Amino acid sequence: MKTFQLVTLFALVAASMAFAPNSAPQVAKTAFKGAAAAFPVAALSAPAFAMDSIVDTLPSTALSMEVQFGAYLAVLLGTFLPCLFLINLFISTETRKAGAEDALAGDDF
């Protein structure tokens, strides 16, 4: 029971780490600095629809492809733990069925 509680704690921590970044990535910092320096003050005070393209001001796709370790851990634990539980449940069910059949047949050891 203690092991299950420990694994559950690790799974909850991993799930929370997946959605709470530790710090801003270096790519985001440099993209923000470069984008802020490229726009004059008049462009920032203009309405959003007056800009040429909002897509040009967004960071590159490298920022969107960064995945934290906690996300990998949450996916692995969320996949493997239920699978292991179901495998153990299947094995114990089959063992009980085999034991019941042996008891009904009256086989001696």
Explained architecture:
The protein has six helices and no strands. It is mainly α and 109 residues long. The longest helix is centred in the C-terminal third of the chain and has 37 residues, at 69-105. The chain is elongated, with a radius of gyration of 27 Å. The two termini are 33 Å apart.
Give me a quick take on this structure:
It contains six helices and no strands.
> Rg from C-alpha positions?
27 Å
Low-confidence sequence ranges: none
Mean pLDDT: 74
| Structural class by secondary-structure content | mainly alpha
Shape: elongated
Series of H and E elements: HHHHHH
What is the count of β-strands? 0
Provide a count of the helices: 6
Portion of residues within helices: over 70%
| Main sheet characteristics | none
Oligomer designation: single chain
Taking the alpha carbons of the first and last residues, their distance comes to: 33 Å
Strand proportion, as a percent range, falls in under 5%
Strand and helix map with partners:
Layout: H1 2-19, H2 26-38, H3 41-45, H4 54-57, H5 61-64, H6 69-105
From the structure above, extract its key features.
109 residues, 6 helices, mainly alpha, single chain
